[in-house]
Design brief:
two-stranded antiparallel sheet, D-amino Acid Aminotransferase, Chain A, domain 2
Length: 139
Amino acid sequence: MKSTSYAVNMAAEAEAKRRGADDAVFLGSGDIVLEGPVTNVWWRYDDVLYTPALELGILAGVTRAALMEEAAAAGREVREGMFPLEHLVAADEAFTSSSIREVMPVVEVDSRPIGAGAPGPAAQELQQALRRAAAEIRR
């Protein structure tokens, strides 16, 4: 649930840092991946990108929408839905998106490496596409 107060989001970030992590991921009932405190969450298997569906109550981020367009333009399929944490953890790569942080690779979740434990090709490709789109808007 999104509200006008970010107290829960800031508490989640503080708890993540206390545990030695850079960020947090909110989970719904049944360990369903929702979003980060100020980010949307994405992951990839082969050429398919996965992200939680808006119907789960997550933020319909502007950057999320832009990445959906850029992914489609690059020929990548995007599947929105309700996915368990284990689906994310077993991915080839993962990343978050936000207007401030842009595309940020996720290299591990709860000390479990994602893919090769390094930024993956989709994150790099979409970061470049996002920056190109932003440059076009400024012109």
